[in-house]
Amino acid sequence: MTSIRRWLLGWLIFGLAAACLAAGYGIFSTARAEAGELFDYELTTVAHVLPHNIGANDIAEGRDHNLQGIADDRLVIDIWDLSGKLIYHTPHEPELPRFGEGFRSVQREGDRWRAFGVNQPDRFVQVAQPFSVREDLAMTLALRIIWPLALLIPVIVVFVLVVVARGLAPVRWLSNALKERSPESLDPITLAPMPIELRPLVDALNELLTRLNEASQAQRTFVADAAHELRTPLAALKLQIQGAIGDGSLRVDGTTLSKIDGRLNRLIHLAQQLLSMAREDAAREAAIAPMSLRSVCEARVSDFSLIAEAKSIDLGLELDAACDSHDPFTILGDTHAFAVLINNLLDNAIRHTPSGGRVDVNLQRDQNGIALTVLDTGSGIDENEIDRVCDRFYRCAGTPGQGSGLGLAIALRVAQRHHAMLEVKNRGDVSGLSVSVRGLRAVVQKELAKV
Hints:
This protein has 451 residues and is of the alpha+beta class. It is built from ten helices and twelve strands. Strand 9 (358-366) and strand 10 (369-376) form a beta hairpin.
């Protein structure tokens, strides 16, 4: 994966390193050349200022002409008379031949030497020096000049890192803003101040979000309108059929009538579920407010109690870890959405629980908030189909009844909008199914007072 940050840092640091190396090489070459010129000047100066009374007798008699001051530079001084006889040679230094006038660079005694010779009226003077002395001085001069540059390199690298990080900060902000948006949020992206380079990207994203919002809204509107338009004529058709049978204008046997009634009930239920799904898809975070989950559960259990009694099913509400006997189990949620969720869960549980069974609605508190669980004693679901039961319009193989396959899909959508988790699993202790909505945010009394 290509990274703009790595690309910028790599090329900037590589360029700075190459520039520093080139600068270091240039400084060393310049220092070496300047050191050579300095030592050449020293050779010339020494050759011209040597005393004229130096000779072989001076060495033999131990006279000192105060030449020790140049010993550190390892200068080798040779003096020949007009007849070509060597009359002076620097003690303790290798003997060098006479090279001639001017500057010479020669190889002698395993070392490279730089020599300067000059003819004077009564003698020939030659001053020589090994190149190693020159290299040492050039290295010293170069290091003295380069070390501030070496200290500057880390500062430059840190500066580049900070500048690149600050320059790419709007990109990171945009990435985090998109990552933190809820899946249903299609609002335009705002970035202030807006860098000129990011404006085309943000404008394109906002244009895409606008088109998606329009398409999604059109789809929700179509489903809601279709469900609403279907529900009324279907209910009217059912009443007309019942009326026709009642006044004798329509004669059908009981089996056919039962089939017609079942099909109509299923179509009406499907239209109602489609309308609920469309409303849930169109719901926004603004509808979420503090609500009593206990009150909603009590109302739904009361509404389904007659249906449960007709099938001899024991339907009840249980409270676990309640703060007190009047604990409302207050959460942040959409009251209408949770009413639809509980309706679907209870409808599924009662429909798939045999006569004489039991359905329990359980509210409990845990470390993650409040959990809502609906337990039944039905046949459960095949483990191979557990992962698909929340898909829209999916019905398990061999499932009896007139379901539409949207109940758990709507429940999952409600849970997702409330940033909770829907868990569907078979019960381990007895036969039946357990459907839980976990991670609902509990609202304490202090938060209610602020609201």
